[in-house]
Each structure stands twice: as C-alpha cells, then as structure tokens.
Amino acid sequence: MVRVGVHLSIAGGVDRAVSRALSKGCDTFQIFSRNPRGWRAKELESGTVERFVTAVKDSGIDPVVVHMPYLPNLACPNEDVYLKSVDALSVEIKRCSILKIPYLVTHLGSHLGSGLEKGYLRAADGINKALSKDDSDVILLLENTAGTKNSVGGKFEDIRAIMDRIEKIDRIGICFDTCHAYAAGYDVRTREGLDTTLKRFDELFGISTLRLLHLNDSKGGLGSGRDRHEHIGLGRIGENGFREILHDPRLRDLPMILETPVDRERDDAWNMAKVRELAR
To answer: Is 253 one of the annotated active-site residues of the chain?
Structure first.
C-alpha cells in the first residue's frame, strides 16, 4: 500500500496534529510548525514538544513533514524581506530538529523581475546561510513550482542551478508536486510523459534525491503556469494520470501528501480514498 496523508491544522498546539492524522487514517502528514501568515513564531513549549514526539512515535506515522510559512521569499531582491526570509528558514529548521521532524519543504520564491540568475544566487545564498547555523540532520526539500511569472523552480534546471551553489548538499532533497509539474509543462498524465519527466529528473538530480510527493490534481492545463489544485482525478491530470503515477516503481514507495481542496462534496478522506483506490 502507498503511504498517503494530508496537510493538517495545528490549532491548539502542534501535538494535536497527531490525533487529527490518526482520525483521518493518515500514514504520513504535513503541518506548518506555527502560524503561516506572520513572520514571528511562538517558542515551542517543552511539554508540547514531548507530547508531539511521543505521539508520533506511538502512532507509527512516518514521516512527518513541515512546510515553510507563506511570507518568506528566498529569491527576493528586497533586502529586508530577504533577511527575514533567511531568518525564518533558520528558525523552521531548528523547530524541525526540536520536534524530531526529518523534512522541511520550501518553495524557492520569486525574483520579482530581477531575473532568474539573481534569483538562483539569492536562494542558494539564503539556504547556505540557514544551513550553516545548524548541524542537525533535518533535510531541506526544495519544491518545484507551477512556473508562474517570476517564480524560481518551475523547471528542473532552475532547481539544479540552485543546488549547484549549495554547500551542504547532503542536507538537500526534492519535493515533487504533481500539479506544479503539470502546470509548468511536464506532462505526467501518460506513461510516456511520466517516463520522460522522471528520466530528466534522474539525469539532473538522481532519483534518490526525491524524498516526497505533493499529490495534487491540476485545474490548469499543461504548461498553463496556474497553481490551482484540484481533487484527485477530477482535474487535468485525471484518474488515468494518477494511476500511472501511483503504479510507477520510482514513485510508489515515496510518502505522498495531498494538498487538495475541501468542499461540500469532497474532503481529505475522499481524496485519500481515491488515491488508495487508484493505487490498487
């Protein structure tokens, strides 16, 4: 069986996320470690940390993943925002270490018109600064983007250009988002398209760098640059596309996090059930 889970709320404390994961039937799950819409983070209380670590261990859920908050932009040319972003990354790496969470997912940001090359340099420099302050074994996962205007990371070559400048490369992995890939022009709907995509990925990074899947269908078309997630099987990738993804031996054993919509007709449970159905 595949390992599938969702992004969960930490309302009431990060430790509450574990019981929510169990109630939803998650094999893995993702959280923000704090309020994702602000720059400041409350200190983690020792009791909360102890309850979280114990609950995760007892649950058998593996792995737990943290996603960076919304505001940081590692490719930003604005110095104030950039410095805040690097500090936020440092703080999140530390929080993952305290909570014994192995993976931190980050977007690579937007160069805001300053150019891709400057965006590469900014992002790599920020990652180097953050990792230089930390000697834990937390792995930073660089997430591919949907190829929206001025974004960094829509093409595999973008991510490779950044990785080539990172000093602690053993602390880096990749999170592959299916919606983002499709919107950026990687046709993962068919066996041929998926194989072409993964062969190119392997050429640039080595398939072993792929640690996590964000499993999302796409409302936008191939190469549309639209970062709009859809329920599994109901978007442009479709059921047949996800059947191909879920049966590919290079992907099947990876942890899979759903960031799909919740509405009146379908929720997290529906999407996880759909993934498990298509994976049979």
So the answer is: no
